[in-house]
Design a protein that fits this description.
The chain is of the alpha+beta class. It has one domain. Helix content is about 35%, strand content about 10%. The chain has a five-stranded antiparallel β-sheet.
Length: about 190
């Protein structure tokens, strides 16, 4: 079943997992208000009361909390006027809101309901990223045991395959970084001749 997921999920009109784009570093960011420093908000130094004025939610959904998960800047062609509408349509069935007009023009995804105890709502974020053609940012999302919505076995397997591919990319990147750091440390320890 997992092998079939690598080839795509035709019932859901999803491409092969290998065709999903790596999103780069995307994190979970707190929404800052109009008159607050985003760095202070992210660090938790400032409580933001006016965060509802700092974004535009498309599709009639509102975020449950003042945080969002970023999207790459180059996700949409700037000349494509229907890209935002297609994004809203792709994730319309999920408890995820598409936000625009965030700090410095960023766009992001935010949960419309929160399940803080089990984190089962992360399944919906993972599915939203996949429906936008991206691998999920595994460094900020974990894959809970129980899905938050009923999904077909084929779609669930596809989401797991996408998550595993993203995790492999994350681990490979960390290993490359660690190897470069180790080689630098070894080079500094060598005595000069």
């Amino acid at each position: 079943m997992l092998r079939a997921a690598w080839k795509g999920c035709p019932d859901e009109d999803l491409p092969p997992v290998r065709a999903l784009r790596r999103p780069g570093w995307l994190g979970r960011v707190r929404i800052s208000g109009e008159h607050t420093d985003p760095c202070d908000v992210q660090a938790g130094c400032v409580q933001v009361e006016d965060w509802h004025t700092a974004y535009t939610a498309l599709g009639g959904k509102e975020p449950a909390k003042n945080e969002y998960f970023g999207l790459p800047e180059d996700l949409f062609d700037p000349d494509d006027e229907t890209a935002e509408d297609r994004t809203v349509a792709a994730i319309d069935h999920l408890p995820v809101a598409f936000l625009t007009g965030l700090y410095e023009g960023e766009q992001g995804l935010s949960l419309t309901k929160r399940d803080y105890w089990t984190g089962e709502d992360h399944w919906s974020l993972i599915e939203a990223y996949v429906r936008l053609g991206l691998l999920p940012p595994v460094h900020v999302l974990f894959l809970p045991r129980t899905p938050d919505l009923p999904r077909s076995e084929q779609l669930t397997t596809y989401l797991i395959a996408a998550y595993l591919r993203a995790a492999c990319h994350q681990v490979a990147g960390q290993l490359r970084y660690d190897m470069r750091s180790a080689w630098r440390a070894i080079a500094q320890m060598r005595p000069e001749a």
